[in-house]
Write a structure and sequence with these properties.
CATH superfamily of the largest domain: D-amino Acid Aminotransferase, subunit A, domain 2
Order of helices and strands: HEEHEEHHEEHEHHEEEHEHEEEHE
Helix content: 25-40%
Mean pLDDT: 97
CATH topology of the largest domain: D-amino Acid Aminotransferase, Chain A, domain 2
CATH class of the largest domain: Alpha Beta
Structural class: alpha+beta
Bound molecules: pyridoxal-5'-phosphate
Largest sheet: 8 strands, mixed
């Protein structure tokens, strides 16, 4: 077969940096700082926020991540996110990059270097570069990366008018993968794309036995007709730090006219559809009311008082609670 005359250039280090800079100029991104154990420090130029292609996190998805929020110059609930990060690492057979204390320190110092006072910290652990095999390369050193950025943002109408969601046609992850925050988010990505293509805001996984799971990067919960806040068990869904915290804090709402109880249990779809309120919970979305699910109104089809009260609780905890770390800017 004749070879077409595509003119491939051979590039040197300077060409590569120039190409990366030109890429970022064509499609600017707002990333404030990036730490890489492979680079051995922090960069603030997004063109330099790179990872070797043969890193197993890139080509095999052998990596994990987590995300914590920066709120008014402080990091919220980092210990809960680190607990989950270490759990994900263990289940993924990933070697840690030093101790938990060292990783925590790097996260805090990278946040300080970014100067960002409101946003998000996303950090990853990879099995490292060195081969295109499946198992980590001989002598591979784990990679640890920390990105400081503005965080995910959602339309204001999600909070004022509520969201519309659909049951996804994509299968839910099996338990091991659902509770491990690995870099393979294909089902989550496809679910969100499917919903957007249908003109909706997001999707919801249902498991094989008909119990409600979670959304793309958020948990779901319900305020039932009797006022009980019900959350699915953390077996087929990621143990969300927001959910876990709110399940504690929401007990304070019981008996004050908002909730009558708090429960974690399997939730059959039919029961969920009869709920008074349905909410999305997560570090970036915080608490957002769902007003329509599969074309049917949830409750009276309007954002309810449970969603409002839960949002107030988590926002107060993020600003003035006892789970904040001051960033040494
Ligand atoms: C699949 C999935 N479920 C739920 C959540 C909510 O977790 P958190 O409250 O820790 O943000 C996330 C976000 O991390 C997620 O990716």
């Amino acid at each position: 077969m004749p070879v077409s005359n595509v003119n491939l250039q051979m590039l040197g280090a300077q060409d590569v940096v120039a190409a990366l800079q030109s890429l970022r100029a064509r499609q600017p991104v707002k990333f404030s700082a990036f730490y890489s154990s492979q680079l051995g420090g922090v960069v603030t130029d997004p063109a330099l926020m790179v990872i070797p292609f043969d890193d197993h996190m890139v080509h095999r998805g052998h990596g994990i991540f987590d995300t914590a929020a920066i709120v008014e110059g402080r990091i919220y609930d980092l210990e809960a996110h680190l607990d989950r990060f270490l759990g994900s690492a263990e289940r993924s057979k990933l070697k840690l990059f030093g101790s938990r204390e060292r990783m925590r320190e790097i996260i805090i110092r990278t946040t300080a270097a970014s100067g960002l006072r409101n946003g998000a910290i996303r950090y990853w652990l990879s099995s490292g570069p060195g081969s295109l095999e499946l198992t980590p390369a001989a002598g591979a050193e784990p990679g640890f990366f920390v990105m400081i950025f503005g965080g995910l943002s959602y339309p204001e109408r999600w909070y004022t008018e509520g969201l519309r969601v659909m049951t996804t046609t994509y299968p839910i992850k099996p338990p091991l993968y659902a509770i491990t925050k690995a870099t393979n988010y294909l089902p989550n990505v496809l679910m969100q794309m499917e919903a957007k293509e249908a003109g909706l805001d997001n999707g919801v996984f249902i498991d094989e036995t008909g119990f409600v799971g979670e959304s793309s990067n958020m948990n779901v919960a319900f305020v039932m007709k009797d006022g009980v806040l019900k959350h699915p068990k953390f077996e087929r869904v990621l143990p969300g730090c927001t959910s876990l915290r709110l399940l504690e804090l929401a007990r304070g709402l019981v008996g004050r006219g908002v909730l009558t109880g708090v429960e974690v249990s399997d939730i059959p779809v039919a029961e969920a559809r009869a709920a008074r309120e349905m909410v999305l919970l997560g570090s970036s979305v915080k608490v957002a009311p769902i007003v329509e699910w599969d074309g049917q109104p949830v409750g009276d089809g309007k954002p309810g008082p449970g969603a409002r009260a839960l949002l107030d609780l988590i926002e107060a905890d993020m600003r003035t609670g006892d789970r904040l770390i001051d960033v040494p800017y």
